[in-house]
Structure formats: C-alpha cells, structure tokens
Amino acid sequence: MQTFESFGLHQDLLKAVSEAGFREPSPVQEHAIPLILAGNDIVAQAQTGTGKTAAFGLGAMNNIDPHSKNVEILVITPTRELATQVSDELYMLGRFRDIRTVTIYGGSSYSRQLSLIEKGVSVVVATPGRMLDFLKNDRLPKFAPKVVILDEADEMLDMGFLEDIEKIFTYLPKQRQTLLFSATMPEPIKKLASRILNDPKYVNITPKDNTTNEDIEQLYYVINEA
After folding, report:
1. From CA 17, how far away is CA 90, in angstroms rounded?
2. Which run of H or of E encompasses 204?
3. Pseudo-torsion of CA 82, 86, 88, 90, nearest 10°?
4. CA 80 – CA 110 distance, rounded (Å)
5. How many Cβ atoms from other residues are within 10 Å of residue 134's Cβ?
6. What 3-state DSSP class applies to 205?
7. Which residues of 196-217 are buried (b: 16+ CB within 10 A; e: fewer)?
8. N or C: which terminal CB in the chain sees fewer CB atoms within 10 Å?
C-alpha cells in the first residue's frame, strides 16, 4: 500500500492532506495519482465517493505553477452542485500552495465570475453550458489550461451535454493533459475519450476494490477565505 508521501507530492499538498485527516490513499488515488504526476492522459472508471476528486486534484495541482496569472486547470462537471463541491475540495487541498479556484455556472452573475477569473486563478471548475458560453463569446482570450478534467462524464452524457463538451474542446490547446473520470463507460463516452485523449492510461476501480478499503475514512474541512 502506497502512502501520500510516497507519491512525491509537494509538501504544501501533503500538509493539506494531513490536516484533512486523510490516512492513506483510496484505490483510485493509489492508481491514478502516479499516472497523473507522470503527465499521462487517463480514463478512470470509479464510483462517486471513492476519493476521485482528491485523486485528480492532488495529481494536477502538484504539477502547476501556483503563481501563474493564467488558468492552469479546468474541471468540467455536470451540475452546479457538483461544481461547488469539487471547487471546495480543491480549494481545501491547494490552499497552502496559494492555489486559487473559481466556480462558474449558469444562474449566477456572469460579470462577477468573469471578474474573478481575470484577477488570476489557477483552477476553474465549470458546468458545460456556462463554460461554452464564456468561450464562444471570446471572454477568455488567453484561456489555455494545461490540464483538463472531465468529472462524472457519464452524468454529462445523460444530461445531454456531450455536444457542449465536444465544442469546448475545440477551444482548448492541443498540447494538454486530459483526465476523464466516469462511474460507467457507455459507448459514447468511450468514443469521446478516443477523440480527446492522447494514448491514455486506464484505471478501473470496481466496487469490490472499494470494499477492501472500508476502513479508510476521508474527511475534509472547507476553510473560507476572509
């Protein structure tokens, strides 16, 4: 069994992991984090609640420059509720590295979200419709994230967002690391992965894998900035 320390993560990330009370990596973290740190594109099949946000969050945030004024990581999620949840956890994990996050979704102030991005953030967590709206209207002319993450890809398929996802990727740099996480792998998701990922590595965490780690408890606490 690997430890978070054995991954070679930045000390500031390890501090956040320790303060959150994470004891040891979950199966998806154990398998995915080393692949992400190595710069691979990955397709990871894992259920909700398996620790996948920390898996892609720790892996991706370890490799970025937190002092860059440009967006380094884009996470796309199907709903505003999940976007907020993911953003909160990434903030918690990245706060000691001064990694700033912003959440963008429909139904909230367009100008405020744009203003937050323009002030300089490392991570954008977005729903497909609002992200595509920003890109189509050329609101983010220097938008070139180094890492792009699709979270709950099968949910986005079920909600009819696949076409929006395809369009979003036409605005993204070809030189990027792409991570796709999904609880199931229906054929349209497999086809999407073949189009947007480059020689991906595969991680498949089955329910049986998770039952061997029922004693692992991972909790996190969100500390809001003043």
Report:
1. 11
2. strand 201-204
3. -170
4. 14
5. 21
6. coil
7. bbeebbebebeeebbeebeeee
8. C
Q: Who's near 85: CB < 8 A, 6+ residues apart?
A: 53
Q: What would the pLDDT profile of 112-146 be if each residue is shown by its tens digit?
A: 999 999 888 999 999 999 999 999 998 887 899 99
The residues pairing with 76 across neighbouring beta strands, listed in sequence order, are: 126, 150
Q: CA 34, CA 59: separation in Å to the nearest integer? A: 7
Nearest to 105 by CA among 163, 172, 161, 26: 161
pTM greater than 0.85: yes
DSSP conformation letters of 2-23: --TGGGT--HHHHHHHHHHT--
Whether 211 shows a pLDDT value over 60: the answer reads no
For tokens 């099949």, the residue is 45
Residue with tokens 């970025």: 64
What CATH class is the domain 26-147+157-209?
alpha beta
Give the N- to C-terminal CA distance of the chain in Å, as an integer. 38
Percent above pLDDT 90 for the chain: 77
